[in-house]
Design brief:
By secondary structure, this protein is mainly beta. It has a single domain, classed as Pectate Lyase C-like, CATH 2.160.20.10. The chain contains six helices and 29 strands. It has a 15-stranded parallel sheet that branches. Strands 1-2-8-11-15-18-21-24-26-28 form a ten-stranded parallel sheet, with helices on both faces. It has a two-stranded antiparallel sheet with strand order 4-6. α4 packs parallel to α5. The longest helix is centred in the N-terminal third of the chain and has 18 residues. It is globular and about 60 Å long. It binds 2-acetamido-2-deoxy-beta-D-glucopyranose (2 copies). The site of one 2-acetamido-2-deoxy-beta-D-glucopyranose has 3 residues, from loops.
């Protein structure tokens, strides 16, 4: 009887064990359920995938192959801009498909870009989008959340190749005021513009165990490393960045701040490696706890221009009194400076959210933990 029950349990639970998201949303995404217990379904083609993502019905959508969007919406040929200096798409840089004409430092050229990559797929409420093994690839299209869509899980998905030769060529994941988003064990690479952008309405998000791979043949810095990685600029954005791997990037990884209110962010236990430009670039609207992160071979962990932001970055009894635990040290090897920052307004702000702040692991364990766990194919 015991054996029969055990066998039944194994058989009954196996499809679910492989089919739905793994783990539990935490940090600011705590409580997110995505598509919940909806039966996992496998879209047969691009049209079906798009329709399942765009509506507000609770759905668990599985990606078990590469969806190749390149060419699926055609191409655009038009006159846009190229820098007059030597860093252009013709020699390892980027050209620009911005609207509104070229400036004094640019010249007009004809560009040709993929239309599908230029704008992401709409994403509605109550969704889980889950990759199977390491097969969950969206090639040539990102995700663009519907305004105010809620309760979404994106796990084990690789977004790749969004017109990387063009600034504005495409964003990996774009949010528009989305309450409750968990992005976990994903990978983003070769975007034209941002890997991730929250725009101007507030979103509540955790991004965890994700790889931001900046290696590109078209770098705005002309050094093989992607520049325009992140912008968190939403009004009252609440964002957890935990255990992500940020590498071969040259800027804005992340940029935090806008004129739209404050952004409350905990960046904890991230691993930053081989970045040739800046990681944190935070303007005065940022309220950022940066703790337990590991840097190596990174030129500028934080810009000097971040001086007007509110930042906390050191262990101190103020952490214990506000968060009920000490903060964790950041560790830097062969990297630029990270001057200590102690603006307790950051801790006051995070303390309001009680169970949302993540308790860090020790800085000495970050590289080992993140390097064995980041990205796709590991859940
Ligand atoms: C999402 O799911 C929740 C809980 O099941 C439900 O209350 C809500 O109406 C759904 N939202 C949408 C937009 O369908
Ligand atoms: C053109 O380049 C110069 C020198 O880098 C810079 O000072 C100026 O602001 C640029 N102009 C525009 C319109 O971006």
């Amino acid at each position: 009887m015991q054996i029969a029950v055990a066998l039944f349990y194994l058989c009954a639970s196996a499809p679910y064990a492989f089919a739905q998201h793994k783990g539990t949303p935490y940090g600011f995404a705590k409580g997110v359920t995505g598509g919940g217990s909806a039966t996992p379904a496998y879209p047969k083609d691009i049209a079906q995938l798009k329709s399942w993502l765009a509506d507000d019905m609770a759905r668990v959508t599985m990606i078990d192959k590469t969806f190749d969007f390149i060419g699926s919406e055609g191409t655009v040929t038009e006159n846009r801009c190229r820098m007059k200096d030597t860093c252009t798409a013709a020699n390892g840089g980027q050209d620009t498909i911005k609207q509104g004409g070229c400036d004094d430092n640019e010249t007009s050229i004809q560009v040709k870009y993929d239309k599908a990559s230029y704008v992401g797929m709409p994403v509605g409420s109550n969704k889980s989008l889950i990759g199977v093994g390491s097969k969950g690839v969206l090639h040539g299209k990102g995700l663009r959340f519907n305004t105010a869509a809620k309760n979404v899980i994106i796990q084990n998905i690789h977004i790749d190749n969004l017109n990387p030769q063009y600034v504005w060529g495409g964003d990996g994941i774009s949010l528009y005021g989305n309450d409750g988003v968990w992005i976990d064990h994903c990978k983003i690479s070769r975007t034209g513009r941002q890997h991730f952008v929250s725009h101007y309405e507030g979103s509540r998000v955790t991004i965890s165990n994700t790889e931001f791979d900046g290696r590109t043949s078209y770098s705005h810095s002309c050094n093989g490393d992607h520049y325009w990685t992140f912008i968190f600029g939403g009004k009252a954005d609440k964002i957890t960045l935990d255990r992500n791997y940020w590498h071969d990037l040259s800027g804005r990884s992340p940029k935090i701040g806008s004129s739209e209110g404050t952004q409350i962010i905990q960046a904890v236990n991230n691993w930053f490696s081989s970045n040739t430009g800046h990681n944190f670039d935070i303007s005065s609207s940022g309220r950022v706890l940066i703790e337990g992160n590991r840097w190596e071979n990174t030129e500028t962990p934080i810009t000097t221009g971040s001086s007007a932001a509110k930042i906390w970055s050191v262990p101190d009894s103020s952490c214990t009194s506000r968060l009920g635990r000490n903060c964790e040290l950041n560790a830097l090897t062969a990297s630029g400076d990270f001057p200590s920052r102690k603006d307790s307004a950051v801790l006051d702000e995070l303390a309001k959210y009680k169970t949302n702040p993540v308790t860090p692991i020790a800085y000495g364990n970050v590289k080992g933990t993140v390097s064995g766990n980041y990205g796709i194919g590991r859940i």
